[in-house]
Each structure stands twice: as structure tokens, then as C-alpha cells.
Amino acid sequence: MRAFTGFGFALAAVPVFSMIMPPTQAVVLSASLTLAVSLLTLKTYWGQYPLRPMLPMLSLSLLGTLVGASLLAGLSPAQFQLWIGLAVVSASLALTLYRPAQEGPRPGARWRAAAGAASGVLNGAFAIPGPPVVVYAVAAESDPGRARALLMTFFLFSAVMALASYSLAGLVTVQSPLLFLLAFPAMLLGDRLGYYLFHRYGSRLYRQVAVAVLMAVGVTTTLQALM
Q: What are the transmembrane regions (predicted)?
């Protein structure tokens, strides 16, 4: 998902992780995997989107991440799953209903700021910074390559912010490195496959694949939390 669309890994992985481990372990594992694979694949997206316009968004995202991390400790596993599921379903519906115009005004600085702040709160609380920034990227960039580069660059910094916040909050434990080592080979294999599929089919299936998978994950997670 991440390599094919530029987003979707945390949205898909955190709900699944939360079914088999405590929320605190799920968010640390997701952020760790995102950071590792983002650094390993840096050359595939770095420099394809200018960094300067992203700086205000990243600054507000950092503040939001600190706020979100403080909320995480107060969530039960069921509440965690429910809010994650609802966030993923909402993002999927927004992507389904919204179609960016090929011409006309694009979202400006205020939209970037709002997306960064909202993304930060979700990043700290759930390790899923995606929904607000994904909607912004789809609205601002009609070219899949630029949208993908914007998202992957943003999520690199988001993962750093999340891990720093979780470390300060004492959520990174001795189990965290072991879980990372167990999960990373599968993550890397999926990344290689997604990168190949993006260059082969990305321009035609970019949105459809992402929305379909995310909606399925969101509905499943929400139903499990309610049951």
C-alpha cells in the first residue's frame, strides 16, 4: 500500500496490529516500520516534491503529535480500535467522493496548516497521520507521482515525530525491537512489490486500489470494536 500509493500502510497495519497486541505496542511498531522503510527507500521519492511548502505543515504536525500522544494512554483497546476504524472509513469515503479538478484553484496555506495539525493529532494518538494529509494531497496534486512523493516525505518526518513522542511517554519497551525484527522482512517484501506495481499500474489504479483496501480494513476494525 505504501509503495503503491504513498500512503495506506499505517491505515491498514495499525487496525490489524491492534487486534493482536496492545494499542501502545501497535503504534510503536507501525511508526518503527514506517521510519525504517522510508529511510531505505529514500531515493525513490526524495526531492520529487519541494520541502519548503511542507515546513509549516510539519511544524503544526509536531505540535499535534505531542497532543495526540498524551491522549493515547487514556484509550482502552476497544476505544482505540473503534476510533481507528472510524478514521479509516472516513478517509476512504472522502477519497471516494472527492475528485480533484484538473484545472482551478488548489488548496492553499490554510489547508496545509489544518491538514498538518489534524494529521499530527492522529499520528500521536493512533500512529495514522494519513487521512487529513491524504485528502489534502489528492486535492492539491492531480499527478499521482507528485502526490505520492508529498505523502512519503511527510510520513518520513511523521514517523520520527511519533517515535520521539512515544519514547518520551515511555511507550517504547524491550519488546519493541523484537516485534520490529519479526515484522520488517514482510514489510520490505511488500514495499518492493508495491514499488513495482506503482510503475506498472499506478497511473490507472492509484486511487481504486487504495480506497478499496482501506475501506475493507476500516469496516472490519469498526465492527470488531463494536462487537
A: 54-75, 82-101, 113-138, 150-172, 178-198, 205-226
